[in-house]
Amino acid sequence: MEIKNKYFFLGGSAVLGFVIILPILFIIRNSFNIEYSEIANFIDFKLLTYLTNTLKLTFYTCVFSIILGVFPAFIISMYAIKLKKLYDILFILPLAIPCYIMSFIYADFFGYQGPFLSFLNKLSNQNIKFDILNLECLAFFFALSLYPYVYATSRIVFNLIGSNYLDLSQSLGVSKFSTLSRVIIPLSFSGVFSGLLLIIMEVFNEYGAVNYFGIETFSNGIFNYWFSLDNKSLAIFLSLVLIVLISILLIFNYFMKKSNLKLSFNSKLSMNNNFMGKPHLMLYVILLIPILLGFVLPLVLLVQNTLDNIHNYHFDDILNLLQNTIFLGLLSSLVIVTIAFYILNVQRSFKSRFNSIISQILTTGYAIPGAIIGLSIMLGLKYMGDSYSVLIGTVFILIYAYIFRFISVAIFSVKSSLDRQPDMLDDQAKSLELGFFKRLIKLHLPINKYAIIYAFILVFVDVVKELPITLILRPFNFNTLATQTYQYATEEMLAYSSIYSLTLIIVCTLLLVFSQLIINKEYVFRS
Questions:
Q1: Is the pLDDT of residue 348 over 50?
Q2: Domains 1-33+309-527 and 34-304 share a fold
Q3: Where are the domains of the chain?
Q4: CA contacts within 13 A on the Cβ side of 391
Q5: Which of 29, 164, 175, 471 is deepest in the core (most CB within 10 A)?
Q6: 3-class secondary structure, 132
């Protein structure tokens, strides 16, 4: 009976995987219909601008993120810093603030009519002006929101180095500086790059802030050519170029990880490595700067703006937006985690190479920007015929897009937990004649419950923060906290939008703190 059911479950998993990856197939298929004459002029005069701005924004964001994330991770890992667990929580909290909200907050604070310039003008009795809406400043604001990615991966890899290599270098009389340059940096490079890769994907995906700052990036261009200029060919072409860039990065990351497997890390995390000795006071100041700029100051500014406009808000509307946001987050997270858990258990139970390939393809969804996903789904519905056009602007299609983009988050979180379970558990369950679904519910669900909750929280936070997909595919007259914040920002009502941003950040912060404090980390290993 188990063998007969094997093909049913494998087939179900394959169909799910194929349906989820359809958006990219539609982009590729429509790219063959583009005539060179339509894009020749664009390639000569405009493509270089989009490419240069995207790469410059990405590069500057990565540099700022390394300064804000890697250096503090090194200090906390290698020095005898007190309250390391508290610092780990504080350095993760900026993830609760989406890039576009972080950019809106600082654009309002440093803008022409903002508090900072008003204070300087009163202090100096002069009319001081400077333009904050530029690419370099935007990259710094992005880094304030995204540095937790590279901080987390750096902390893990610094701890994985452990004491073996460090003790060996000391026994050979190697100085601490030489150990840093010859041992720690080479061993940690792949881990740092993994965090930078996540940051790069977020920068490629960002639309709200780049549009407000007037920076011509690929994501901004896709929106403009599809919706404003009604030039679908150029929107498809930009999507294809961006997919090629992302593919190159993923291939590079794959070979880097493959070569890094030859390195021998400690199997157990060394969370209390004090290789560099006692810290100076200046190091504590360095640790506080990213926390203050990335979370505390934005939160203070939002609270101040909210209090200034407290009598102008309609709290019924805010409650409705909160309900819409939570509804989308809960439903999407439940569907995504369920699908990921099913696919991974099918792969674990039946060891199918084909199913393994599908799950690996699904993990690349996070690398595809939301603008491309939204565009590809609309192309797909158009290709399937007029009868499917009724699905445009429905919650069903919106959740489908979320599944494609965020299923990788659930897969990585749950897979790391499943991989730690010995196959003997499944063999014993089979000997008791437990079928696939019974093993799923009675065995794997209880054992992996912490990983599933952790995956649910991560997916929920990503979904409620997502802007491009929601803007493109949301139902008519259906807003979330994210879309409402963006709409007020585009209408130059940044201060008024603060309460929507603040509500979203509070929800995300509570969930992130819960994931760090309540869930037993021994049951959840973050890849």
A1: yes
A2: yes
A3: 1-33+309-527, 34-304
A4: 19
A5: 471
A6: coil
